[in-house]
Every structure is written in C-alpha cells, then in structure tokens.
Amino acid sequence: MILPIYVYGQPVLRKVAEDIAPDYPNLKELIENMFETMDHAEGVGLAAPQIGLPIRVVVINLDVLSEDLPEYKDFRKVYINAHILEVGGETVSMDEGCLSLPGIHESVKRGDKIRVKYLDENLEEHEEVVEGYLARVMQHEFDHLEGKMFIDHLSPLRKQMIKGKLNAMLKGKAHCTYKVKTVKK
Length: 185
Ligand code: NI
Hints:
Elements lengths: L4 E2 L20 H14 L4 E3 L9 E5 L14 E21 L9 E14 L5 E7 H13 L11 H6 L1 H8 L9 E2 L4
Parallel strand pairs: 1-7
Antiparallel strand pairs: 2-3, 3-4, 4-5, 5-6
The structure holds nickel (II) ion (NI).
C-alpha cells in the first residue's frame, strides 16, 4: 500500500524516533508498504517518520543507481533500530534532496565513512563500517530518526535562499507526483 509522505512542517519529522520491540505489530507489512511508497515516489531511501511513525525503521534502494554504480545492483535493504555510532573519513559535498522537502536540492557536506548498527529483516544484529554513496544515503536517512533533515546542515545563507519554499510548504503547498501530507491537510 502506498502511504502519504509527510512533508516539512509535520511535527513527527522533528521527533527523535524510538527503537521498536521484536513483536512490533505488522512489521513485515509496514516494511513492504515503506518500500512501495519509496518506489512510487522514486526515492532512494525512506525513514518511518516520513510516513508519520516515530520509530527507527529505514528502507534504502540503491538498485536504481546501479547503471552508474554497479556495486549497488539489487541493493534493497531495511534497517531496523538503526543508529550511527561514528562518522569519519573525508568530508565530501554532494547534492541531496528529500521526499519530505519536494523541490529543494542543496549541496550537503558529510563524512564519507561511518560505523552503524542495526537489525536486518530477520532481526539479526549487525555492526558495519560503510563508505561511499551508501554512507551518504544512510546518514541522510538516519538523520530523520534523530528528528533532523538535510536542510539543517546548510549555511545560514543557503537557508535564507530556500525560506520561501519552506514557508510555502508550511502553508500546505507542495508540488510533487506522489501523495503527501502537509501540515494543512
Ligand atoms: Ni529525506
């Protein structure tokens, strides 16, 4: 089932999300719905707060990029109770967008190497060092679990430049091809 994506201004996007228990109701169905919602909106990642749930569940699909980055062929993964333990490596700037911030794309600086822990779809625990594009997407998505969005990383000047678009979203205006839930709806 395709779910509406919560847009900037929705309080759930600013909450610190919580770990879930292994018996969280209908978890499998929730994950399927998140994949379907992400695919429909043509995103590479989606965090549960973006569908209104303040829990630490993230889906990532990098298969869509595998024409340019063959190492991500068939890469579709869910990360449950996901946490970043450490950010390091080199600081790299890259353009980012977000399904909860339609129409905004800005360059964001992030480290290119991280250490993360999470549970996979079988609720098995992993601790990994991740680099490159996946480290970028994970930081963006896992930020959502801390109540952060990529615009929080921008300079005051860049923030000023997108203020009009943000204010429009707060008034319920969001132009995109997928179903959204703004504060006014
Ligand atoms: Ni996002």
